[in-house]
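yo

u said u wanted the structure for the complex thing, so here. seqs first:
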Amino acid sequence: MASAAETAPPPPSPPVGGNNPAARILSERLASRVLQVEDFRGDLAITVDRRVWVEAALCLRDHPDLDFKLFLDLCGVDWLDLREERYEVVLHAYSVSKKHHVRLKVLLPESDATLDTITHVYKGANWFEREAWDLYGIVFVGHPNLTRILTHDAFVGHPMRKDYPTARRHVLKSPKEWLLRVPADNEHPVVNIGPSHPAMHGTFRVQAVMDGETIQDCEAEIGYMHRNFEKMAENRTYWQIIPYTDRLNYCSSFMNGHGWALAVEKLMAVPAPPRAEAIRVILSELSRIMDHFVCIGTNIVDLGAITPFFILFRAREDIYDLLESCCGARLTVSYVRIGGLAADVPEDFVPRCRAVMKSIVDVTSQADKLLTRNSIFTRRFKDVGALSADDALSYGWVGPCLRASGVPYDIRRDHPYSGYEQYDFDVPVGTAGDCYDRYLVRMEEIRQSLRIIDQALQKLPGGPVLVDDKRVALPPKSDVYSNIEALMNHFKLVYEGILAPPGEVYGYTEAANGELGYYIVSDGRKHPWRVKVRPPCFNIYQAFPQMIKGHLLADAVAIIGGLNIIAGELDR
Amino acid sequence: MGVLDIFRGKLIDPTAYPGVHGGGDVITTTVDAVVKWGRKSSIWPMPFGTACCAIEFMALTASHYDLARFGAEVLRFSPRQADLMFVAGTIVDKEAPILKTIYDQMPEPKWVISMGVCASSGGFYRSYHVMQGIDEIIPVDVYVPGCPPSPEALIAAVMKIQERISKGEQARAPQGAHRLGAPGDGSLDRRARKQAWNKEDGERAAKGLPPRGVISFKVLASEPGTPERG
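structre next:
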């Protein structure tokens, strides 16, 4: 075999970006304005000149062979002294029809950190550009409302810059009074909802100009839960970030850790063993069910019925018990490790899991009976808060909400990870894109998740749950106490952390609310240089003010509950 | 002598309660004691839930743990109707004035439970936008550790509040007010640290000292008659 390989001519090097035509088409269109094309771990990254930023984004969106209609993420990166040009703006987009991801980058010097806005290309870019301005001070020329979004108004400076001290706080004395520009001769009442309002779940704020019962104009404010995950992540090792990820979407903590582990494993090119992947799938699907329970349950509570909440939370307690038996924590589990899991599941995991599944089937059918054909419920939900598929893509919706709008995109099926390709499941899709469709999609996803869990339990492989790789996994304790190599390896890993290779990856998974992406930039040291979470809720909530215009005030409550906005993930 | 305690469902000795005295068929007590007893058995909590802890708070009020067993089932989402506030979750600087307003709107007497480490001390979010404990702005009666605390710990906290109510204890002033807006420049970034070190090195060089980090040992002059130190 070896001699044959030596004599055979070397295989032609694959074109950059694999079968993704984005680099070729952009190079043809923009010629020398495309500065750099990189392909690291299968992620295509194209750096363009700042003068063609908008043109490049338009080309990506509108070219028939590219069709990057789905806006994913836009963020800033601060390179400080490492590069000549200090700032970088990074756009992630996805093509649902061609199944390609792309990363478009542009470099900006410190002396002139300005860039043309792409809010007219992607609707979703609006809040992301505000965020990049708020956190990095990058000015987007032509942006309709470039104001602070995550931090408060009394804040001084741009906190995500590398020369901003992590813990320097500023005191806010009183909240922002007006979110809307209300004319002086306005005769319509202005209603302020939240942030301390039961329907706003504590941390969202909406201000609406009312015309009778109808919302005429409205504006939302976020940032009431901005606890700086990204800044903290820059001062932590890859392991230490795992507990922080649990607190992003705290309704389904395990899935965030799962996504984080996969992203770092992609960066390190260390796949987890099959048993760990299967257990991750099972617990992720249980977390998805739990998340949908919270969404449906609290949505109904907001509408005034408490019985389904009590029923659904019964099974939720059972899932909690299962998680507790695996890792000792109910809510914030911290169960994954880079390259596997912290520990193997208990011996009676399979029967326990079966029992939990039975209880889930039981409560789901009860809630189904109470809700799905309930005339009060359907009248509150049907034809309320509909969003078209085009708008949903432009805002960057992914997950149950996008599928309810009729786009059959599910990462588990289209880009399978953790062995999802082995399992047989259906992707439910809505037709009208209203609240009722979102509810139905969630109910069906619960059933499909149960199917996946069932299959995963049937073929649960044996073997280790942590990869045997000295770069990422701690050696077993018995080795640490008995031989010097393992002891040194343990010491180095704990002291120095995981040393990732320099490079950047975008790892994405299908979390309960949609695509949860981690964009990790590593400079080869033990702390990541930059971590950007692509939170599904941020994109979804951005569309909320537009969706409720023209609806009744009471409908706004039904809509926000059905979108399942989680503050920890929205504001990070 | 015994009277029926509807909360325990059995006959109890009323004189076990503070301020209640018995003799024959007559019980004497004070209005104060009765009011405290009533108050502690009918707490109206208001959840000020912002983050993960709010999810565990939901579990506390839902069917399995059932806070109603402690007479605290009437959750009020309006501060004007509540006497116990659960601050469940991280409070960031942006949320702080709202928390203060809500607390001020609660009628006296009022109690506050700080649920979880984020509300108690900022937790592991020691960063630019997170309040390092709600006691910077409002008084706290009971701190519950945990991230998030288990529902059992919360039940214990509610019982602690009941104890405080029956003793007439109440926190009056924010315990951590001195921390409000503390600069917290402890962790500096790479460039600032480099600049600070360069400055310090420059200062040391101007004084004729060796650069920072270089330790120079004093050479002891060996005088006759004294033993040399190594």
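The radius of gyration of chain A is 24 Å. Chain A touches chain B through 57 residues (CB under 8 Å).
cya
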